[in-house]
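User: Could you write out the 3D structure of this protein bound to glucose-6-phosphate? I've included everything you need below.
Assistant: Certainly. Input first, then the structure.
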Amino acid sequence: MRGRTELPAWKALAAHRDAVADANLRDLFARDSHRGERLTAEAAGWYLDYSKNRIDDEGLRLLLALAGECKVRERIEAMWRGDKINLTEHRAALHVALRAQTGESFVVDGVDVVPEVHATLARMAEFSERVRSGEWKGHSGKPIRAVVNIGIGGSDLGPVMAYEALRHYSRRDIAFRFVSNVDGTDFYEAVRNLDPAQTLFIVCSKTFTTQETLANAHAARAWLLQSLGDEAAVTKHFVAVSTNVAEVAKFGIDPANMFGFWDWVGGRYSMDSAIGLSTMLAIGADHFRAMLDGFHAMDAHFRRTPFAQNLPVLHALLSVWNTNFLGTESVAILPYDQYLKRFPAYLQQLAMESNGKQVTFDGARVDCATSPIWWGEPGTNGQHSFYQLLHQGTRRVACDFIGFHQSLNPLGDQHTVLLANLIAQAQALAFGKTADEVRAEGTPEALVPHRVFDGNRSSNVLFAERLTPHALGALVALYEHSVFVQSVIWNIDAFDQWGVELGKQLAARIVPELQNTDAGLKHDSSTNALIRRLRPRRDGI
Ligand code: G6Q
């Protein structure tokens, strides 16, 4: 198969990039006084201003042509049809079915999965209501006052992100904690000050074989039983979210207390499945449904809207432009909302585990760069930290600014100040400040170069009215679909993650070597030395 760089649209984009290499955002805006209104799109309550990307109309036209040549439309339809688009694992990637509405149908292997999805949601809602109302009692008859989610990767990042994002809507009389790391500190700190008699553990694991999660689940059971002293207590204090009923039963959780999902839901695409049980417990079933409606609204937009107005497609194509044609190596996610503080971490997994790949579907090496590095922090905090590099560093970073018209916690004029900062940062990145402008401020000549801002640095701005469950769902779906479209352009499998395997295998071999200090070591000299060094220390403590 031809590499992507051989495609006519790719070649045309490369030629176009060379032709417009000198084009500057100042010029692009000067040439078109409506650019800031024209290069925008709106869907599912979100407004995207992509005018501050270093691209002109011809570049956009060619990117849309590239989407056509890479068959993005066909691949979207394949996803919706339930085709096994995760080729290396021979699975469908049908997270869109998780937010299907009544009357819709999604078919996997000849079976409509929507009734099962809705039945699980109904069970989750019933369970959540029982816990929230106090009807569900712990082993000693007390109501639940703490929920601890145990899971890692896709079974943690979505739940913790959604809990933090929607905290405004959450029950404040129930504590929510999240344990992921195999580092015992995570567990110790999470259960500190909790009353076992009033604590509910949700063990989230698609496979129910994940080392970290099982270790923490066993620690949780020991912690509970140490206090309550009766095996029977597990039934009232543990529920599982998994696809593996046999392992759940083996652990000792009653399968009646298990919420299922399906192999066509990838871990990092699962926060709106039963993996979101902690979210539902926190915000209630109605808010959870509103979140699913938000996902669904963006799904419908993604599937139906012409690409030139399609938020996820435009977002993806601009990322491809920045990555493959302008050489941008990273994407900064900059939410101007403290509730979204875990959103960059969530997107790191979504984007980099999906598209951090080096071979195409047929196993050939890619002939272009794939996923950039995604990272970020909420504004305005980042402004007092790494924004220096964004403005004057030698590396180019594509920025996504995310904000809301209204604050959920108005405090004097602070929200106005927050929004002003968001707008100003995007403006400063795009237009900078020339040496002449710096001089005109009376700056001593020696300082002029230090105070120059080159500008011409790309960013997107995303706005919604308020941070609601609906807005969060739509935002996550936007990024899910953008990541998918990017994978289609790069011709890689966005839904596998073979790159996480090797480290796991090696660690499994090293664990006994650390425990058995007599075992001979046959690794490289560095690994051997590290193991030897850690052995006596461990024994000495
Ligand atoms: C996500 C990945 C990975 C996974 C974790 C947890 O897409 O597959 O992050 O979610 O490894 O796996 P389990 O849910 O099976 O414990």
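The mean pLDDT is 97.
User: Perfect, thank you.
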